[in-house]
Design goal:
With 241 residues, the chain is of the alpha+beta class. It has helices at 12-16, 30-38, 44-54, 74-84, 103-108, 137-144, 154-158, 168-171, 174-178, 181-198, 226-233, and strands at 59-65, 87-93, 113-122, 125-128, 133-136, 149-153, 206-210, 216-222. The chain is built from eleven helices and eight strands. The protein starts with 11 loop residues before the first helix and ends in an 8-residue tail after the last helix.
Amino acid sequence: MQSLGVTPKLTMDDALNMSFFRKKDDTSPLPEYLISCSRHGMSHHDILKAMETLSNGRIGGRFFEFYPQRRVDIRYWLAGWIKRGVVPLATLNYQKSVRSVTEEEKSYLPKDWHHHMIYAVSYDGVHLSNPISKMKAEHFKQRIESESVIMISRDEVLGRLKGDMDYEQLKSYPEWRQMNVAGQIEVIEREEERFHSLNIPCGMKHIAIPSSMIGGITLFSHKDSENHKAIMSSEEVFLKI
């Protein structure tokens, strides 16, 4: 927001306690915990609302989805907006497997979805804040072109399995039924039983659940500017066919 000339007096604790930010429910049974993981953090909808609230209505934005793949060189697309003075915010999935990431990088990279302001692009990368870093263009492309999914580790699941659990709540959501989340949990349960009774190694390292996050870019500008008019009237980025 400082790059747009607005400096709210906001601490990290203030941000985490905002109604827009949703926390994981670590004390709940497995079904409720998984639902809270699915909604954890802030989606682009939440960020748009928060930015408008914190700027007293002076700053607005628009989200551009980048999954499925788009027919565009994202660096050139970003450079065009940055040159105009628009501020892009990327929503990336760090669980998306990328090649040539070192063990050192893995130690400090976010564990799942994360938002970054983009302040520059270059021939070989995208320059980000939160934290200040440069990401290889190919890694940025893979992480932004991600389906709305989050992986939950086997240990997280097993640590919350208690007796006969009711998974009907998970089956009541269409996207959860489509991903057969309840079935994935049952596979882990059966594998664990076989491991303890027959010493058969377990195969599933995690389960996949829907996420409220969507890979893409949110563009911000002053509402009373030509940039804002350009953002709101811009065409969607064409799908790659």
